[in-house]
Amino acid sequence: MEHILEIIGTVVGILYLWLEYRASIYLWIAGIIMPAVYIFVYYDAGLYADFGINIYYLGAAIYGWMMWKYGAFLRRTILRRKGAGQKGEDTRTEEQKLELPITHMPARYLLPLTAVFIAALLGIAWILINFTDSNVPWLDSFTTALSIAGMWMLARKYVEQWWAWIAVDAVSAGLYIYKGLDFTAGLYALYTIIAIFGYFKWRKMMNKDEGLEIRD
């Protein structure tokens, strides 16, 4: 049963990655299904931090859907109230104007996001070392903590989210080989390669749309 769930999770994960690469809002549907499957896979494998992070992923997927769908509209409303406006003619459809654009992460978020990552890393590692039988507490904690930051950046549609996933996927591929999750290891090896291409894809899409939206 575990291997069947792992195969299902792998298939959904590939679909998720393809949708993320295309910056399609429908990635969040796969983003709900995939963690629901992996909650059982990771628990059986003794990867308790990954088990916990998938509960977080479920909530983050709902938040991400709402942000991608209506984030631009909400930001534009706030900016108008502040007296700011858009420059140039916007030729997009009304649906496109509602969706959140791809942008760089503002520098002011770097320090607090780093602090959240470090706090999550230390906190998760402490829990795994003291309250579980995990034999890979630090690697498990690293990928989990960085995934928390990566999911937040993805929900906000920051292009730098790909940097986090490249690191998470590369480390995870090795970790899952060690834990005997061969299908999942293969998925994350594929993730690592496509994440690199995804970064450049999003950069190109961002440059194309640059100037159409103002970001806070």
UniProtKB/TrEMBL annotation:
Compartments it resides in: Cell membrane
Transmembrane portions of the chain: 25-43, 55-72, 109-129, 185-202
Chief place where the protein resides: membrane
Pfam families: NMN_transporter
Membrane-protein topology: Multi-pass membrane protein
UniProtKB keywords: Cell membrane, Membrane, Transmembrane, Transmembrane helix, Transport
Residues forming coiled coils: none
GO cellular component: plasma membrane
Family statement: Belongs to the nicotinamide ribonucleoside (NR) uptake permease (TC 4.B.1) family.
PANTHER family in UniProt: NICOTINAMIDE RIBOSIDE TRANSPORTER PNUC
Role played: Required for nicotinamide riboside transport across the inner membrane.
Protein's name according to its UniProt entry: Nicotinamide riboside transporter PnuC
UniProt source species: Bacteroides uniformis (strain ATCC 8492 / DSM 6597 / CCUG 4942 / CIP 103695 / JCM 5828 / KCTC 5204 / NCTC 13054 / VPI 0061)
Source lineage: Bacteria, Pseudomonadati, Bacteroidota, Bacteroidia, Bacteroidales
Chain's gene name: pnuC
